[in-house]
Amino acid sequence: MKIILKIDGGIGKSVAATAVCKAIKAQYPDSKLIVITGYPEVFDGNKKVYEVLRHNELNYFWRNNIQGQEDTLFFFQEPYLATDFIHRRGHLVKVWCDMNGIKYNGELPELALTHKELTSYGGNLKQSNKPIMVLQSNGGLPNQTDKYSWPRDLPLATAQKVVDAFAPQYNIFHIRRPDQLPLQNTIPVTAEFRQLAVLIAMSEKRLLIDSFAQHTAAALGKQSVVCWIANVPSQFGYEMHNNIIATPPTVEPELRGAVLSMYNTNGPEKEFPYNNEDEIFDADKIIAALQASQQPKEDTKKKVKELA
Q1: Tens digits of per-residue pLDDT, 145-185?
Q2: Which of 25, 116, 128, 255 has its CA 20 to 30 A from that of 188?
Q3: Residue 139: which domain range?
Q4: What are the pLDDT digits (tens) for 20-72?
Q5: Are residues 156 and 234 in the same domain?
Q6: Is 287 among the domain residues?
Q7: Is 78 domain-assigned?
Q8: Distance CA 224, CA 210 (A)
Q9: From start to end of 72-221, where are the E strands?
């Protein structure tokens, strides 16, 4: 029997979907699980997945997966449009499983990194004897008109204050595209997904937002400090992280354009519910959370996760 899981959306959603794959295989251990995604690299080395297809590379799909195969199951529903998801009645992974009749047992995402990936790319990350800290302060699509989205991104001044507190002790790698806002005293890094996953695996501390990196950190078992504004960790995050929620709004926002969620993630100025960006987070609280975070020391071999 084949089960075909279709994933729309960004790379973080595909990372989260690896937890859905775990739940599917727990319920249907003898099935051949096929994933359709825009990010096949997320599933490299994932032994629970039989085959990975790109959205635009579905040649002979009907012949190979539907013709004469009446027992094939199609999990093509969009979880973001599910009633339970819109009402925030559970984590994305749970809603995704529920809508397809899959029992959810708290599965977490997972990634498989090889020893060669860790040693080859990881060796290029050593700038000095300082340990590595990873920061992702901005997310979203490339070439956005507004480089800062207040419902999702860390305010620039807040992020810089945190960087200044840790730059003397850490090499701070700032995950960002060239079109995203820079921070002083950081090492900007733009790389392929699996190289960024190696960076996260090798880091000692991580300050992240609700974007692909926090899903990736969870998949690698790397406890992180994650900051939340519009979205909530009970729906998109993980209990293993230290989740810091933004200060409650201080201004009544204009929500005429809100449809399926309170705020639009592109951050319209009219919806901004604060007097200024400094009100969103207490930078000292973020710094204290990072200072308190302790990542168990592991040798490189233990970071290589073989998926059963």
Answers
A1: 778 999 999 999 999 999 999 999 999 999 999 989 999 99
A2: 116
A3: 121-297
A4: 999 999 999 999 999 999 999 999 999 999 999 999 999 999 999 999 999 99
A5: yes
A6: yes
A7: yes
A8: 12
A9: 73-75, 132-135, 171-175, 187-189, 205-209
